[in-house]
């Protein structure tokens, strides 16, 4: 934590130093420093803007013991601790977005021992309000729950379907286009060409990842970008709906989850299809996701069989239904699951999660208290060495507090 505070102080000091030559000529009626809903802003007309924000998620939870499964116990941690910077330089067309993470559980240590502090590092060029390009490291345009910021979720964590099939972050080229259609309808097209190996990788290989996503908003835009924020905190006055589909082809990925997961003995080709939706009206919210993943391009060698067979594939789903009870209280229910293909059922689990959540909003998603309770099922019909035990109705409960600006 001491190291984190030193980094924060140095970054803020640096911001003042680089801004000083610009701000030195500011007239007395201008305000180079503002505090707003976007955080702390340092700016000078149309030549420089830096928005500084932070957030943290502290949690305490418990996982019950089921028939000798050794994963039970308490979970007490700083789940996320992040700094975010965004703005523009020289002019408003040249934008940037940077996000850093500092908690152990937020640094992608699955595939190695090097902490991945940099989550996002993007440069954007905005041709106009409906078209922009990006270059750098950021979230791929995958499933809705993954692209929604973890600070805007109804539950402390994303679903088991997301954990298995999400596309996550990658380094590459990004293009975003908004196409107005008629009086209300909007079509959004998002495409990327990326390394396919995830964040913070030193090198890639001869394969790249190609991702495309289309979103259709037939009833017009959501208030305050509500199609990428869970729960109808804005109490939409008319029904709002977003329907979307994503396809990603990751050629010769070396990680079990494409951009995430453990390192594989040899590369594979990963094909992921995702469809999702978001509906909001009068405090009600419904979100649904469907996943389909196929993996091919590998050969069994006798020494890599178990690793190859355990690569997540098959189908997954995630459904949320929520209701705002006044301006501060929300209740939500989740049903999510993962089903492996028939030919891999002896090597992978069939998962199901039934969950209830309660959120008390002090300042919408910026400052909130969350409670989560779920019953989880995990079933594997085979008895393959290296896999854990099955369980049914395993209790997972936790509280979480989020605070940020």
Secondary-structure arrangement, i.e. CATH architecture? Beta Barrel
Strand content: over 45%
Uncertain runs: 12-30
Average pLDDT across residues?
88
CATH fold-level name: Porin
Number of helices: 4
Question: Structural class, from helix and strand content?
Answer: mainly beta
Structural account:
With 405 residues, the protein is mainly β. The chain has one domain: Porin (Beta Barrel). The protein is 9% helix and 53% strand. It has four helices and 18 strands. A 16-stranded antiparallel beta barrel has the order 3-4-5-6-7-8-9-10-11-12-13-14-15-16-17-18. A hairpin with a 3-residue loop joins strand 2 and strand 3. The longest helix is centred in the first third of the chain and has 22 residues, at 2-23. The relative contact order is 0.12. The model is unreliable at 12-30 (pLDDT under 50).
Could you outline the blueprint of secondary structure elements for this entry?
Elements: H1 2-23, E1 33-36, E2 39-44, E3 48-63, E4 73-89, E5 94-101, E6 118-128, E7 131-139, H2 144-147, H3 160-165, E8 169-181, E9 185-194, E10 209-217, E11 240-255, E12 263-281, E13 284-296, H4 305-309, E14 314-325, E15 329-339, E16 350-363, E17 367-379, E18 391-404
Antiparallel strand pairs: 1-2, 2-3, 3-4, 3-18, 4-5, 5-6, 6-7, 7-8, 8-9, 9-10, 10-11, 11-12, 12-13, 13-14, 14-15, 15-16, 16-17, 17-18
Which keywords apply here?
405 residues; mainly beta; Porin
Give a brief rundown of this model.
This protein is mainly β and 405 residues long. The chain has helices at residues 2-23, 144-147, 160-165, 305-309; strands spanning 33-36, 39-44, 48-63, 73-89, 94-101, 118-128, 131-139, 169-181, 185-194, 209-217, 240-255, 263-281, 284-296, 314-325, 329-339, 350-363, 367-379, 391-404. It has one domain (53-76, 141-404): Porin (Beta Barrel), CATH 2.40.160.
């Amino acid at each position: 934590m001491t190291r984190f505070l030193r980094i924060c102080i140095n970054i803020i000091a640096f911001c003042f130093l680089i801004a000083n030559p610009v701000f030195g000529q500011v007239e007395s009626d201008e305000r180079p420093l503002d505090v707003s809903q976007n955080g702390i802003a340092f700016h000078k007309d149309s030549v420089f803007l830096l928005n500084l924000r932070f957030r943290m998620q502290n949690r305490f939870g418990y996982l019950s013991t089921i028939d000798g499964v050794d994963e039970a116990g308490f979970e007490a941690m700083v789940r996320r601790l992040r700094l975010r910077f965004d703005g523009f330089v020289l002019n408003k067309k040249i934008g940037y977005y940077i996000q850093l993470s500092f908690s152990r559980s937020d640094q992608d240590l699955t595939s190695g021992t090097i902490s991945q502090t940099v989550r996002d590092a993007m440069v954007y060029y905005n041709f106009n309000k409906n078209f922009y390009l990006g270059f750098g490291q950021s979230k791929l345009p995958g499933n809705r729950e993954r692209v929604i910021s973890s600070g805007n979720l109804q539950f402390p964590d994303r679903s088991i379907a997301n954990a298995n099939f999400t596309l996550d972050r990658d380094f590459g080229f990004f293009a975003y286009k908004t196409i107005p259609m008629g009086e209300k309808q909007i079509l959004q097209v998002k495409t990327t060409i990326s390394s396919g190996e995830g964040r913070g990788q030193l090198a890639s290989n001869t394969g790249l990842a190609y991702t495309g996503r289309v979103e259709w908003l037939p009833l017009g835009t959501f208030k305050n970008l509500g199609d990428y924020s869970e729960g109808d905190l804005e109490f939409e006055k008319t029904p709002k709906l977003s329907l979307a589909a994503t396809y990603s082809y990751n050629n010769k990925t070396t990680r079990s989850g494409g951009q995430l997961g453990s390192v594989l003995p040899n590369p594979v080709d990963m094909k992921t299809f995702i469809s999702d939706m978001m509906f909001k009206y009068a405090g009600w919210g419904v979100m649904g996701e469907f996943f389909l993943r196929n993996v091919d391009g590998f050969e069994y060698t006798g020494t890599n069989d178990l690793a190859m067979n355990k690569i997540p594939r098959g189908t997954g789903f995630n459904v949320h239904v929520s209701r705002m009870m006044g301006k501060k209280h929300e209740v939500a229910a989740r049903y999510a699951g993962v089903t492996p293909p028939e030919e891999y059922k002896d090597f992978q689990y069939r998962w199901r999660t039934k969950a209830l959540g309660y959120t008390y909003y002090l300042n919408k998603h910026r400052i909130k208290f969350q409670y989560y309770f779920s019953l989880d099922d995990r079933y594997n019909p085979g008895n393959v060495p290296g896999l854990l035990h099955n369980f049914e109705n395993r209790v997972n409960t936790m509280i979480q507090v989020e605070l940020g600006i």
